[in-house]
Amino acid sequence: MGTEYVFESLVGSGFMRSGSLFAASGAVSSSVLGLLLSLLYLLASLYVYISLIYQISARTPEAFGADAATARKFGLPEAILAALLIGFLFLTIGASVSQPSIQFSARNLLANFLVTGCVVLVIVTFLQFRGFDVGSLGGFFRLNFIRTLSTGAILLFFAYPLILMSDAITQQLFGGGSSKQNIVEFFSGSRTIQQRMMIIVFAIAIAPIVEEFLFRFFIYGVLKRYFGRLLGVTFSALLFAAAHAHLPSFVPLFVLGSCFAIAYEWSGSILSLAPTRVITTFFH
Fold this sequence. Notes:
Oligomer: single chain
Structural class: mainly alpha
Number of strands: 0
Helix content: over 70%
Order of helices and strands: HHHHHHHHHHH
Low-confidence stretches: none
Mean pLDDT: 78
């Protein structure tokens, strides 16, 4: 009986050790597989956006058709207006930095929306007065609804790993601090339906589209006209990130702005960025 008991104990402990070994091996394999898939996803994202850059650099003006090839370009009056807009943004950024203790509220949200709406109205009116076809210039009618959604979804899918990587690097280098923007934290902390509906309508649905008009359509368009695509993408993305006045998310927002500028230059339509911006505003 003693010998049989010792034998059964040894066999049982052997099975337990082998089971633990298999479980550990499975966990390691899953971790390695997840890391490998993440790396492949990141490489695919880099490949897609590098391919977009290559296609943009190799493309001729006639690629978008005769209307795009002969379309008017931004001139000195638009450059002056863009300089005034950039100066206004710098003032608001400076005010946000000098008074970081200002609480985000529904009143501030509504005030920001009204000011931004007035700015967009001034720009559109000015361009119309100058004889520009804003719809054609921004490619608002270039893509149909289905293609707009599909293009935006694909661009977001391949931009997401780049944004996550930049966010992880920022957190690793500079430590704590939430990478969530104030509007997302305000939405999470809101307690009434009225506040949440206001945030959804103004900050999540409308504001991202307005930002794309300002930063990609107008500011990037003017910068590209006078300084080329590279400086246009870089400076408009830096301005886009700084305008949010949220240091922990500065680098991810810069990457996001760069990806959107490249996507806008490639697609020729600002609307292809609209669904992507709405999603990233809510989830980032």
